[in-house]
């Protein structure tokens, strides 16, 4: 690909991404969708902001607790998956999370030959692939897929796999506030099954905390606020958009019945937002649920999994937190 062709390709990607961003923002601000801004959190510098959260915020229990639990249970997990030669990692995140979460497990899998990485961030995929490249001799066969795990098309060069997603795959879109998101959780498990194939295994790491005050306190930090508000900065510099990102603040609120931590963009002043000649009037106090973190309940998830034909091998729980490593067999 020559330089001119490459530049044209980059511009086409930017145009596509900008159109998608505007569509998601329009749907959010016009109340057509909720929790749908996840794809934009890790772009335009968002990935670096997330890396800062996990490297500097010791109170961010969803990360710190899960790392501790993996260190405690990695040998048990490896024994459970000892015959698996292919691992599919959904949402590996930046290098630091790959090094502290998945890598300790992968190093203990004696039959491992292939790892497939799926992430919304091309930057994170590249970092995770580099960690694997530097950590195994002889090297593993590594494939990367950038996009939504629900829609990526995997190379079917395997008979069964261990599907791992730790911490990142609980950001459900259009999730209810006042009832457990059973249908969404079920659709995720069904997709995991498709990837794992019969005889495969699923490891789903998640936070099961249901203490509203404790959860909201974990997320009230300047680093997390900057991360969640970051897509507004990209939106404000996008062609066809007029919005003042400084007129929003970040506010989290936990809804126990839905096991749902809602991340809001809350308006601090009125403004008219323009998106491609459409005017949306926003008033002080309006809030928009841009992103969701679901605090899954292991007992409810067990029932949903059984209905999908999965059997729960175990659910490891850390003694000092509510982090869960839930292991499922697809027989």
Automatic annotation (TrEMBL):
UniProt-recorded Gene Ontology molecular function terms: methyltransferase activity
Keyword Methyltransferase applies: yes
One GO biological process term: methylation
Start and end residues of each Histidine-specific methyltransferase SAM-dependent domain: 41-328
Keyword Transferase: yes
SUPFAM superfamilies: S-adenosyl-L-methionine-dependent methyltransferases (SSF53335)
Keywords: Methyltransferase, Transferase
Protein name (Swiss-Prot/TrEMBL): Histidine-specific methyltransferase SAM-dependent domain-containing protein
């Amino acid at each position: 690909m020559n330089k001119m062709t490459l530049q044209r390709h980059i511009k086409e990607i930017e145009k596509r991404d900008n159109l998608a961003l505007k569509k998601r923002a329009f749907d959010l601000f016009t109340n057509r969708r909720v929790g749908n801004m996840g794809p934009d959190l890790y772009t335009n510098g968002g990935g670096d902001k997330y890396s800062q959260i996990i490297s500097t915020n010791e109170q961010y229990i969803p990360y710190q607790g899960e790392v501790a639990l993996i260190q405690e249970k990695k040998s048990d997990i490896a024994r459970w998956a000892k015959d698996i030669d292919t691992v599919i990692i959904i949402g590996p995140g930046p290098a630091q999370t790959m090094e502290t979460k998945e890598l300790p497990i992968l190093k203990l899998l004696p039959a491992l030959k292939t790892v497939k990485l799926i992430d919304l961030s091309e930057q994170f995929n590249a970092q995770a692939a580099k960690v694997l490249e530097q950590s195994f001799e002889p090297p593993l066969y590594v494939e990367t897929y950038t996009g939504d795990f629900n829609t990526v098309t995997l190379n079917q060069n395997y008979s069964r796999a261990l599907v791992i997603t730790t911490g990142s795959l609980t950001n459900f879109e259009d999730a209810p506030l006042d009832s457990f998101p059973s249908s969404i959780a079920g659709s995720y498990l069904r997709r995991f099954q498709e990837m794992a194939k019969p005889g495969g295994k699923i490891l789903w790491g998640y936070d099961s905390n249901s203490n509203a005050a404790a959860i909201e306190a974990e997320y009230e930090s300047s680093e997390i606020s900057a991360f969640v508000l970051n897509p507004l900065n990209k939106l404000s510099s996008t062609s066809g958009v007029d919005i003042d990102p400084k007129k929003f603040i970040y506010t989290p609120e936990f809804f126990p019945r839905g096991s749902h931590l809602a991340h809001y963009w809350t308006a601090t002043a009125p403004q008219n937002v323009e998106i491609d000649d459409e005017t949306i009037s926003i008033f002080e106090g309006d809030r928009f649920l841009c992103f969701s973190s679901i605090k899954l309940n292991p007992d409810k998830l067990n029932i949903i999994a059984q209905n999908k034909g999965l059997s729960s091998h175990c659910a490891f729980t850390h003694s000092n937190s509510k982090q869960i490593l839930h292991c499922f067999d697809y027989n």
